[in-house]
Amino acid sequence: MEIERIRASYSVTSKSKAVVPKTVANLQVVNLLDADRSDINANQWTLLSNLLSCYDEYSGLIIGRNFMTEQNKMPARIRFKPSSIIHLFQLLLADGQLLYTKNRDFLALSTEDRSILIENTLIYTTASSVNFINSQIGIMDLSIFYEAMGVISNPGSITIMKRIASHMISDHVMMKLCLAIMSFSTLRPTFSPTDSSKQFSSLNAILNIQDSYIELAWRYLIYTYKLEWTVRCFSDMIRFLFIINEGVVQSKEVEWYHDTLDSVTQQTKDCLTVSD
To answer: What class has domain 33-189+197-275?
Structure first.
């Protein structure tokens, strides 16, 4: 495994007045190949490796960095127009299906259970991953970005977006584990299009998978940051998820956003059907 691809800081080539992405907080770096000192067993290290490969933020970062480079080339008065922000979101949202199509535990579920999980959780996993990428490329540091968000969604989204930015999970490994945990959530959004009569055929198996991911996240944090940081990071993750939920509720009337999500949802289902 290439450790430098797990905990790396990213930068964008900048010119005068160009936006430079933030760097990840300077916390202790974990060497995932050095498992001797941790309480993580061999199977959990393998699981961690597999989960990290399910979500490759590098493709999203390339999209985001290219977007920022092109915007920085433009005159200041025409940068970050609402239409360009919508296009960025659409590109990043389309990248969200990999979290499901590359997860071995997810692929082992029945077609019906996978369908329910995708319909229930993709809106949360994509919202989290898109905001994570946006925080990395530095666009969430710009007031003009929030102005555009107020235009393309609604004014109430500005406050929520700023809260998301201030509570963003900075640890890349933990962010990926958080996404994996969310992808197996059995909770239905109150406005979910999923037929409420649909029931999971393997509910216990799904809950066991989610439990194993949560335990792995805890053990990873203990190994990386020790107990004090672990409690803080877990608390921050829960707070982040609550804010993401607020953002999802706030976005339910944004037509272009949900049209894109519907398309990604269907593409994800189709991709899994073909793989079967």
So the answer is: mainly alpha
